Amino acid sequence: MDELLTLSEASEYISKSKETLRRWDNEGKLLAVREPMSNYRLYKKSDLDTLFGGFIDLKIKETVSNYVEPNHKYSVIELFAGAGGLAVGMEKAGLKCVALNDVDKWACQTLRNNRPNWNVLEGDIKQFDFTEYKDKVDVVTGGFPCQAFSYAGKKLGLNDARGTLFYEFARVVKEVNPPICIGENVRGLLSHENGKTLQGMISILDEIGYNVVPVQVLKAIHYNVPQKRERLILVGVRKDIDIQYDYPKPYKRIYNLSDALKKGDLFSSDVPKSEGSKYPKSKIEVLDLVPPKGYWRDLPLDIQKEFMGGSFHLGGGKTGIARRIGWDEPCLTLTCSPAQKQTERCHPEETRPFTVREYARIQTFPDDWQFAGSIAQQYKQIGNAVPVNLGKEVGYSIVKFLNEYYNLSKPK
Ligand SMILES: C[S@@+](CC[C@H](N)C(=O)[O-])C[C@H]1O[C@@H](n2cnc3c(N)ncnc32)[C@H](O)[C@@H]1O
C-alpha cells in the first residue's frame, strides 16, 4: 500500500504551503485522494517523492565522510553479482573480490572483460560449492532475487527455504562462515507477504549463527548517487562477535543529473558519447511537449487522454509516466529497459532515453567499465545494479566493522 500523508504532513514534507498544495490539486498538477469520511485531502508519499524531491531527507545536517582505511587485506565473495555494481563499490572501498557468481552470461562476460583476474563463476548458484573458502573470507554479499517462501510453521528454518535463492545465499554464508554477511534487495521486501518473507530470512540467518542488524533502506541520493534509488540492506553479524555494525552515514549533499552527465564534482569530464535506444515516433511527438521536470499532466488535455488511454480515468499520480528529467534534480530510478512503457525518463533537452553511458553515469559506474552484450543486455545489467557509490559507502561500513573485529581478535 502506498503511504498517505495528510495535507499538513505533505506540506511539511516538501516545504510548500498548504495553499499551494490545494491549488495544485485543483489544477491537477498534484492530485490528492480524499479520505472517505472526512473528505480531507491525502497525498501519496510516492507522488511527492517523485515530483518534488520530498524523497530527500531534510533532517540530515552535516556532511561526514565514511571513508576508512582497511587495516588488513579484506576479501569478499559477491553472489548474484550482475554487472558488478556492488562488486566495484566494494573494490573501491578496499575489499578484494575472491569469487563472484552470476547465472547471466552477459553479466559474467562484463565482469571478466573488466577484471580478467577476478574469479567469475558462471552458472546457477545451486551448482557451486563454496566450502573451500571456509573461514578464509571476510564478507559474503549478495542481492538475491526476492521469492516467497511457502511454509506453514511458526519459524522458518534453512531447510524450509530450499528451492529459493535466499536459501542459496544462506547456504553459502553457512559454508564460508564469514564474520559478516550483507544481503541487498528492493524496499518491497519489507512488505512482501506482509513482512513474512523478511521475517523468514531473519530467522534463517539466526539459525545458521548470525544476528541480523535492524534492517534499513538506504536512499542512494544520500550516498553520492544522482538518482532516487533505494536499496534495502540486510546485515548479519556472526553470533560470536560482539561488535556493533553501523550503517554508512548519509551525506547532505545531493547530486543531480547535471552532476551525472557533465564535468564537475562527481565526474572529471562530460559523459562519453555512446549508443542508446530510441523512442518510437509517436512517443517523440508527445514527449516533445513535456518540459524538463514535467510529466504527462503537462500535456494538453486531449493528448493526455490519448497518451494515457484507459489509465487516464484511473486516478493516482502516475508521476513516472512521460517524465522528462530536469538538469537540477536527481534522476528517477532507472529501470532495466529505458524505452519501457509508462516509466519514461526522457533526457532534459533531447527527446530520447538516456544512452548506455548516461545510464552508467547515473548509476555511478566509472566511464571505463564496459558492458557486454546487446544494447538491451547492457541496459539490463546497468538497471539491475547497486549504484557503485552506494556500494562503496556500504563497503566502508564493512571495513570499519572488520577493522574493529580484527583489533579485538587475532590479527590476519
Ligand atoms: C539485482 S541483480 C544483482 C545486481 C548486482 N548486485 C550489481 O550490483 O550489479 C540480480 C542478479 O541475480 C542473478 N541471478 C538470478 N538467478 C540466479 C541464479 N539462480 N544463480 C546465480 N545468479 C542468479 C541475475 O542474473 C542478476 O544478475
Automatic annotation (TrEMBL):
Database matches in Gene3D superfamilies: 1.10.1660.10, DNA Methylase, subunit A, domain 2 (3.90.120.10), Vaccinia Virus protein VP39 (3.40.50.150)
EC number: 2.1.1.37
GO BP annotation list: methylation
The keyword Magnesium belongs to this UniProt entry's keyword annotation: no
GO molecular function: DNA (cytosine-5-)-methyltransferase activity
Keyword vocabulary terms for this entry: Methyltransferase, Restriction system, S-adenosyl-L-methionine, Transferase
Active-site residues from the entry: 146
Pfam families linked: DNA_methylase (PF00145), MerR_1 (PF13411)
Domain spans labelled HTH merR-type: 6-51
Reactions mediated catalytically: a 2'-deoxycytidine in DNA + S-adenosyl-L-methionine = a 5-methyl-2'-deoxycytidine in DNA + S-adenosyl-L-homocysteine + H(+)
Presence of the UniProt keyword Cell inner membrane in the record: no
PROSITE patterns hit by this protein: C5_MTASE_1, C5_MTASE_2, SAM_MT_C5
PANTHER family per the UniProt record, alphabetical: CYTOSINE-SPECIFIC METHYLTRANSFERASE (PTHR10629), DNA (CYTOSINE-5)-METHYLTRANSFERASE 1 (PTHR10629:SF52)
NCBIfam families: dcm (TIGR00675)
Membership in a protein family: Belongs to the class I-like SAM-binding methyltransferase superfamily. C5-methyltransferase family.
Protein name: Cytosine-specific methyltransferase
Organism the protein comes from: Flavobacterium azooxidireducens
